[in-house]
Q: What sequence folds into this?
């Protein structure tokens, strides 16, 4: 036989192929014989997200700032909640382990001032861990109310002083960079001299030239700011842009300052990239991300807080109890009159709900193995049990018999063949998922005595 390169390669590969087959057989046997919960993470789910290593080290501490009660209420369709509703939402933020909260812009008027003071008082008297901040334009008249409220409640409130910075905004306002620099220095010094922690915010940072970014943030740090917020105010950023901006500011502003500076990212969702941009900002070194419940905020809103919590939990960056996540979202929905879309991830009505036969059958089989984690992962990339929720199996035109049997058994109803057949036949004629009332009507008719015959 002619010893071609291909033949030689095949001869050398044969023993290795046999080894691979043996290793695969051993691996499959170990997977089958081990309890599902013990092998879920590494053997049953191959995670391509971490194939080349984690994008964000799990040793990082990532904080969240909740903007629901300030920027979130700038959404043109929302109702401004009552103070009782705001306090309820505040306590739910606390229960979720959210680090900081923007409690308002007290310089906006008497009601804004009163609500901000009430929320600050609630944080202090309830001894909450969540730390308050307030928005203010870079004007003394906006900062003074924060100083007053801070003194009244006996706790420092971080002043989030903001101003526009991008060339397009400067053109519209007839501002010069020198004017912005002077305004920045005066405002930050005024707040810091009153004992307030200061976070300095430039609007539209993502569309601001590098020289202006360096000038304004460096000025703010020299004046006493110990946190800087980089903003995608109009939802212009892509993940690469968010990463590059954060990386640039850390390298060109924060490190040269020699100070310990917290770097925040504040993004909007106009291109549907808010979550991706926030994760990219964290990967670049951002310490804290701003977000709002149900993605509320100007125009189409901010980064959604629910999904930041979910993603940080799934990435292993936070570990707190998130069982009240849906309660938080629903409280904000009621208070602001903002309906939650049925297909909204995690907290939407359909997030863990299926009526499809193939999906439901697999979930039921997983439940029968006695492993909730397996059932919650077989057809979901977001395990419902991590968020205090469960898989829901409904009955509809795309359902199989397993849907019907599971639905009945879940409610303690005997799944006789006759009853299953009746419900299954009705489901196949339906145009949508059947309601509880419709199914119970069939059950009642199946057990009702036949009417007496008349002569």
A:
């Amino acid at each position: 036989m002619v010893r071609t390169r291909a033949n030689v390669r095949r001869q050398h590969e044969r023993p290795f192929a046999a080894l691979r087959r043996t290793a695969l057989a051993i691996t499959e046997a170990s997977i089958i014989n081990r309890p599902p919960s013990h092998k879920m993470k590494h053997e049953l789910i191959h995670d391509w997200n971490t194939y080349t290593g984690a994008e964000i080290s799990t040793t990082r501490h990532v904080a969240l700032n909740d903007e629901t009660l300030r920027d979130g209420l700038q959404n043109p369709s929302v109702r401004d909640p009552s103070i009782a509703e705001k306090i309820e939402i505040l306590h739910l933020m606390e229960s979720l382990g959210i680090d900081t909260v923007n409690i308002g812009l007290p310089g906006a008027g008497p009601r804004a001032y009163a609500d901000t003071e009430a929320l600050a008082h609630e944080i202090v008297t309830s001894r909450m861990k969540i730390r308050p901040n307030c928005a203010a334009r870079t004007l003394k008249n906006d900062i003074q109310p924060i100083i007053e409220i801070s003194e009244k409640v006996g706790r420092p409130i971080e002043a989030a002083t903001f101003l526009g910075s991008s060339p397009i905004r400067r053109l519209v306002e007839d501002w010069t960079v020198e004017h912005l620099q002077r305004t920045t220095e005066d405002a930050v010094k005024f707040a810091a001299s009153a004992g307030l922690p200061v976070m300095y915010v430039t609007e539209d940072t993502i569309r601001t030239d590098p020289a202006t970014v360096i000038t304004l943030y460096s000025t703010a740090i020299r004046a006493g700011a110990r946190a800087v917020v980089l903003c995608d105010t109009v939802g212009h950023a892509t993940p690469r842009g968010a990463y590059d901006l954060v990386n640039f500011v850390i390298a060109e502003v924060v490190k040269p300052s020699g100070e310990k500076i917290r770097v925040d990212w504040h993004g909007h969702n106009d291109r549907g990239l808010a979550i991706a941009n926030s994760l990219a900002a964290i990967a670049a070194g951002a310490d804290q991300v701003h977000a709002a419940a149900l993605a509320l905020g100007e125009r189409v809103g901010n980064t959604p807080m629910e999904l930041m919590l979910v993603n940080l939990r799934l990435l292993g960056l936070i570990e707190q109890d998130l069982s009240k996540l849906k309660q938080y979202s629903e409280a904000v929905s009621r208070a602001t009159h903002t309906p939650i879309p049925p297909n909204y991830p995690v907290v939407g009505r359909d997030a863990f709900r299926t009526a499809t036969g193939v999906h439901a059958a697999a979930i039921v089989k997983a439940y029968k193995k006695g492993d909730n984690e397996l059932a919650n992962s077989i057809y979901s990339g977001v395990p419902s049990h991590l968020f205090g929720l469960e898989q829901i199996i409904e009955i509809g035109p795309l359902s199989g018999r397993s849907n019907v049997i599971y639905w009945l058994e879940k409610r303690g109803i005997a799944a006789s063949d006759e009853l299953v057949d009746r419900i299954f036949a009705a489901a196949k004629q339906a145009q949508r998922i059947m309601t509880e009332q419709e199914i119970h009507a069939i059950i009642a008719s199946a057990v009702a005595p036949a009417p007496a015959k008349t002569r």
